[in-house]
Write a structure and sequence with these properties.
Blueprint lengths: L2 H29 L3 H16 L14 H21 L2 H24 L17 H19 L1 H15 L1
Helix pairs in contact: 1-3, 1-5, 3-4, 4-5
């Protein structure tokens, strides 16, 4: 194995591990309805309601904490299985799913009343920690996809040929 491919493999493991750890540790908060999660999704639901979409982020809404958490769990599982199996398609699907869900999170931090700093359980602000973690997940997912650019383009070309 060349130095470049070894470095790439190690980098993929590190980036994937980062995404997996951030997503999996957040599941406790989402699935236990923690104070922080209530604050985030209540703020987003009020914002959605002000735009004419009440319930969008509520417990049974299409973008509820449970839907977001389940998506993060699936993305993490795909990244993990992709690493263990060495199958790039599984890893690419996990990274793409991660990039999608975290792009939404970053959007909501930047363009809604939620803001970059969110409320902690003790009533203090988190200093942008959650937003910073989200940005790290976004960069990590994007780099994983960039590492697989040739595979993605080759797969898309094959799918395009089948469709024509």
């Amino acid at each position: 194995m060349s130095q470049d491919s070894r470095a790439k493999k190690i980098t993929l493991w590190i980036l994937s591990a980062y995404v997996i750890v951030v997503f999996v540790q957040s599941l406790f908060f989402k699935f236990t309805d923690s104070v922080e999660t209530q604050y985030i999704f209540r703020t987003l639901d009020a914002w959605g309601a002000s735009l004419g979409f009440p319930g969008l982020f509520a417990h049974k809404g299409i973008f509820s904490q449970y839907v977001v958490g389940t998506t993060e769990l699936i993305a993490s599982t795909l990244l993990f299985v992709g690493l263990l199996s060495g199958k790039p398609l599984i890893r690419v699907l996990g990274a793409a799913m991660s990039l999608g869900v975290i792009s939404g999170a970053i959007f909501f931090h930047l363009f809604t009343p939620l803001g970059v700093q969110v409320l902690n359980a003790d009533g203090t602000k988190d200093g942008g920690e959650l937003f910073t973690l989200a940005c790290g997940v976004w960069v990590s997912s994007a780099v994983i996809l960039l590492f697989h650019k040739a595979f993605i383009l080759e797969t898309l070309a094959k799918l395009t040929k089948r469709g024509s």
